[in-house]
Amino acid sequence: MIKETALFPQQVYQIANDIRDMKIRGAGRIAKAAAEALKIAAESYKGEDLEDFKRYIKEAAKLLTSTRPTAVSLPNAVSWVLKALNTNVSTLQAAREAVINQANSFIQYADQALRKIAEYGEKMLRDGDTVLTHCNSLAAISVIVEAHKKGKKLHVFATETRPMYQGYITSEMLLKEGVNVTLIPESSVRQIIRKVDGVIVGADTVAANGAVVNKIGTSLIALAAHERSVDFFVATETFKFSPYTLIGDIVPIEFRPPSEIVGVDFLKSHPNLRILNPAFDVTPPDYITGIITELGIIPPKAAAIIIEEMYGRPVISSEILGRVEEDIS
Ligand code: RUB
To answer: Which residue among 135, 249, 265, 327 is the active-site one?
Structure first.
């Protein structure tokens, strides 16, 4: 539980807790929720001092970015909103409005991006295709649903995605749209892949070298697809591209509690058992056919160009330097 003080309205803590506890999950939804939380914080600020307001918004930004480490969409969304404070705002009212407008513009951009991804991505699917997806990615689902709406008859294999079973959510979403779905354990992928024409997954972070960080198990699926020359697409908004990786920062992989894997009683009766529960893994660019973004479908190796165009060459902040030093030591 995140420690609540009187500083922010309860809704902001609620969003932060919901991201941390995975009630809000999926990199795109996390990013939009963080922008929404900053907007709520700005709207509810009770003070009267511009500099104090800036500190308050930056504190809210820190709280939100501390909730989950892997999806770069979270710090990218927060940076997008914080740009409001770098503009020449000279009054509290102007700063408040700027933060609210920036948050709204991020949310709007995210919604439009998903629609573009669906439009570009559906062209990669043919009538009669069998598609495999993993975890629960709105970007990947939007591609499948768009192709379905265009009248292409598809069959989807959705992995359960242990230990949190996001595959159930994916199955429900696709069934609601009228798409044929078969739920499978991810351990069956190498057996099933022979029936699959293409894989589509989402991303939590795309690194400058085109490697994609996504739900644990993604890289094994990519390996199985590669072995049989099955196309492997990643559908993602460009705000999941990491500017930090351009200067060598390593994407932090979240490890989640053992209790997600085994029951408390089993843990208690085997005190010497160590349990590892990594939530994400890294798929190398060589296993990725293309990255479907709102700007078009790009080869993974072009990720660095997109990052430079969108974010410029990053200025190395002391915070980032600290992280790099930590990794080397
Ligand atoms: C979710 C996950 C999704 C990406 C992309 O993991 O790995 O594939 O976040 O999702 P978790 P989207 O459930 O642990 O957050 O395309 O919706 O952004």
So the answer is: 135
Catalytic-residue membership of 204 = yes
Task: Judge if the beta carbon of residue 141 lies within 6 A of ligand 1.
Answer: no
**What would the two tokens of residue 175 be?**
């069934």
**Catalytic residue from among 129, 204, 231, 286:** 204
Q: Is the pLDDT of residue 7 over 50?
A: yes
Instruction: Give 99-106's long-range contacts (Cβ < 8 A, gap of 24+).
Output: 99/38, 99/39, 99/42, 99/57, 100/39, 100/42, 100/43, 102/35, 103/35, 103/36, 103/38, 103/39, 103/42, 104/39, 105/80, 106/31, 106/32, 106/35, 106/77, 106/80, 106/81, 106/239
pLDDT value of residue 313:
65
49 is catalytic: no
Q: What is the pLDDT of residue 328?
A: 32
Tell me, what's the pLDDT at 312? 72
- Write down the pTM of the prediction: 0.94
